[in-house]
Amino acid sequence: MQIDFITTPTADAAILALPVGKGGFAHIHWGAIGATVQTIARAAAKAARFDGETGAIVEIFAGEGDAVRRILLLGIGAATDMDWEKAGGALTARLLTSGATSVTLDLSTLAVAPTGKAVARLAGAAAQRSWRHDVYRTKLPDSSKPTLTHLAIAGAPVGTDEAWHAQDALTKGLSLTRLLVAEPPNVIYPETFVERVLAEVEGLGLDVTVLDEDAMAELGMGALLGVSQGSVREARLLALKWNGAGGGDPSLALVGKGVTFDSGGISLKPGAGMEDMKWDMGGAGAVVGAMKALALRGAKANVIGVVGLVENMPDAAAQRPGDVVTSMSGQTIEILNTDAEGRLVLCDVLTWVQTTHRPKTIVDLATLTGAMIVALGSEHGGLFANDDSLAAQLLGAGKATGDLLWRFPLSPAYDKLIDSPIADMKNVGPRGGGSITAAQFLQRYIDAGVRWAHLDIAGMVWADKAGATYDKGATGYGVRLLDRFVADNFER
Length: 492
Ligand code: BES
Ligand code: MN
Ligand code: ZN
What we know:
19 strands, elongated, Aminopeptidase
């Protein structure tokens, strides 16, 4: 979607949107719109019980000479940044496949002008809500195809351009994440994940490291490779480093689970719903999307994003329940369930990033446990942290962006539950507290003194209903959270 910032609406703006705050009808400055049309608009609003609620829309068609103009009253509620964002998404949702190709939003009608940041949030959301993945739909009827390609915003305040630059970067990062998540698992597997990402971040100034299976075997990544050994697809580790604060060790590492398909392995999942496991790389998708956004907006921080990419398949060569593997850290793991593979991938990636880059803070994102969905549904991601200040920073970024998080406990009592009689640990605990024991497993790979948080985003990366800034399907959860977390806590 093309976004333009203009001074005043052009006379030929056939579709005009006017923002209305809650109860704010009296404050609308109707501009060039005549008294008759105003009366119709008020009557339509009343009939629809519209009162400027965030994202609510009333649409009228008004005659102007021989022409007809389409006018949308767009609710912006209390006009917080989040309200503006929701309104932007709602505007696109209404018009995307409506036949309309262009809409003009007139901000000069407002009594209180929004900030540049608020306008940028609206514009970003409008663009983000237009994202779709139609590449495999060859028979989509014309009437279902998106038509809206252009949003003009009239009367945006000074400072919008700069804020928009950052939102545009975020939007592009989100698109990458959603694409990777939405693509089918025969198309996106470890090697093609890397190819796609490298094509998308080329020229942005990120330092790229790719490890193949030989390199990972050399490093002793027996846990990650154990998961991969049942697949004909080769595993990869991909690292993207952004030196926005001048280089040196990154202060922050973002780590993502990238299981491009999770069949469960020999501990095979039931057939129903198994196709969902194409998005078991949503953590990795969020990490690379966030890295793209950081690079595009020139974030003044040193951050590394590392993703472990494998496919978990049953095969004659697949690992068995009962196998014992040795991780890169030297710790041994008894595999009790080959479907608890995410932690096996992450533990070696965590060791690798700490050994090679010494970050002081690590945040990992993973669609790690079904138990997380049982606990939180699809409203919050689960947060586990060994440090209260880090937890507070992440919770704050979640509230500010709408990528909400809810904190869960860690403790030695939970940790004990994954002790193994034959190895240092087992890869599953008892049935109860499954998300917590998974987090405890990861914590065993965190070096002393490192601030670490684990985000279990199993319920968040895919949506069966549309949200404010996304349609059904891939949400891009985590990208705006990480972008904000970096902006608020790691940039000078
Ligand atoms: N990728 C799954 C977790 C998952 C399940 C994410 C459903 C999204 C929706 C993970 O690899 C897994 O299979 N976890 C097991 C762990 C269990 C064997 C301890 C689970 O949650 O059932
Ligand atoms: Mn699994
Ligand atoms: Zn998995």
